[in-house]
Amino acid sequence: MLEILRQLKDLTEVDRAIVEARNQLAKYPRTLEQLKQAQDRLSAQLKEFQDQLEKARQERRHAEKEVASLRQQISKYIDQQAQVKTNKEYQAMSHEIEQLQGRIDEWDTVGLEKLEIEDTCQRELEKMKAAMQTQRAEQEAQSKRIEELTREKKAFIEKLAVDRERLFEQLPDPFRDDYEILQDRFPGTACMPIEGEQCSGCNWHLVLQTRQAAKTGGEPARCEHCRRFLYSPES
Predict the structure, then answer these.
(1) 195 phi, psi to nearest 5 deg
(2) What is the per-residue pLDDT across 130-151, written as a single tens digit (0 to 9) for each?
(3) Where does the chain show beta strands of DSSP type E?
(4) What range does the domain containing 151 cover?
(5) Is residue 78 part of a domain?
(6) Number of domains in the chain
């Protein structure tokens, strides 16, 4: 019976290795997706700054056009001032020129604010482009590494599958069905060691008879709760 217990233990270890390898394989697509999402977030931020830059640029140009238009109006008023005949008309035109100059000052302020926004956006864009280039290189390197690891894990799983088939065929018929049922319920943990007085699979406190049976190495002991096969590290 000790030989059967050893076979159950070896088979469980192979199944556990297969489960772990498959779990690692399942993580690789998520890792690639996370890298893609990070790249997408940077792209979205880059687009946002580009939009802000273009908007500020258009608003600055609009302000410059307004200033140019107002200066033309001032130039016309100055020309007209030379032709007026009364002081009242001259003062009225001077008042219009002052108002136009005030509007020019306002549009100049707007233009300077938009120019400052342009400069800030331009600096941020340069930083983000550099960050995207660095991240893209890291993403490509990580993708290649994951592709390599994927090939290695798949080859490893194929080798383990061969070992599992061999070990399973060596297991006596009466234990095969029970083992497969346990493997379906508890992948990679069908046969577990006793830890203290508990099943290490489900932490159930085992009765003395079960613990002694595991130590003597007779009929493979089983947990009263989860029905896993048990072995004692001492044996």
Answers:
(1) -115, 110
(2) 988 998 898 899 999 999 999 9
(3) 191-195, 198-199, 221-222, 229-231
(4) 18-170
(5) yes
(6) 2
